[in-house]
Model the fold of this input.
Amino acid sequence: MSNPPPQRIDDHIINRDDLDNHAVEVVRTLKGAGFEAYLVGGCVRDLLCQMKPKDFDVATNATPTEVRTLFRRSRLIGRRFPIAHVRSGRELFEVSTFRQAQHDDIETNEHGLIVKDTAYGTAADDAFRRDFTINALYYDVESHEIIDYVGGIEDIVNKRLRFIGDPADRLAEDPVRMLRAIRFAAKLGFRIDDDIMALVDDTAERLDAIPGARLFDEFLKLFLSGYGEAAWQLLSSTPLAHSLFPSCDPDSEIVQAAMRNTDQRIAQDQPVTPGFLIAVLLWADFDARSREANPENKAGLVYDIATDTLAVQQQHIAIPRRFSTFAREVWQLQPRLIVRQPRNIRRVLSHKRFRAAFDFLCLRGLQDEALAELGQWWETLQTLERDDQQAMIDALPSTGKRRRSRRKRSGNRPSGTTQQES
Ligand code: ATP
Ligand code: MG
Done:
């Protein structure tokens, strides 16, 4: 297949000062060894959109093994598409070898999904195997030109997300590209082409065939990159939300609010964890199961209910254990924050998930006045010195409960507090 000649654009807004020096160094080393090399993909796109790139990727005609021998601090990763990871300074760069889009050695499974693709090619070939036109721009650090094989510059100007090639084929090859479309639309404020959105129902079903670990990676990029609220808004207006999080109500107010909080925290350089979002996204399911559960059977109940909720979700997205444990702990603390047993308050306050559980309670407070007031109480408590805290604790109304006897656990608890407390 012969490709049309590319456009070479030197009149653009990218400034040499915006480039990462180490990335430029990697490109120069490759070129110095006689290879072709460019900055490519997200970094060129983001710079053209006047955004700060998350990372700088390099494309070259050197094979992964050749890259490996050129850079001492490098290693090869990936089986489906082997690429080199090169360390320079404190950063890590992905250096990928030009690949072909369509060729005879491409291995697809019975659904058209690519399983292996290692045929190397030219820069032009490489442009056409990329997903969106805006992701297929190459920047030459020496000539300062952008090389555009696919009309990506024009699409950036028009704020369009458009696949290279036929959308149905590109989505059949890799349905995750639909999630990528949502992510870039959210991040850049671009519009996804109608012929892509027309395929959203079909693609949502195809996501079932994607390994859960890959979907977890994509989940992180969607919701923990600083524009999760916009991404959730787009996602939840399609069946994609249901295929990723089947038990979550796409219109959930607390999910929306949690996404917004997360974005704000990222903007302020505060720490965020996927565990918290998992807790929020799966809360409705956990809460419904808790209400249905037999209140007589308390031992380990919360733990088991959480396990059920998480197990259903794990069939779709592989959540690493530390994050599912985080969600479970946040849920387990909810009744303890609500009951406020005076003798337990200090232990709750010093629990390693207290802060997250408190934030979670406040989110729930958006839909429940009584919980909002409890959130206020805990908020105040945290601002006080120890003595004043004790005064607040002493002023708590008695919960009217006897100490739990070892043999027989006490009977009915107030609503919402039916779970074992620790
Ligand atoms: P960011 O790093 O900001 O999330 P990015 O565009 O750099 O965005 P990466 O996942 O880092 O995204 O991928 C780098 C480049 O590789 C993309 O710009 C695109 O050209 C290509 N690419 C990535 N994933 C795919 C895919 N599933 N199908 C085709 N091309 C892809
Ligand atoms: Mg990238």
Q: What stands out?
A: The pocket of magnesium ion (ligand 2) is lined by residues 41-42, 54-55, 57 (CB under 6 Å).
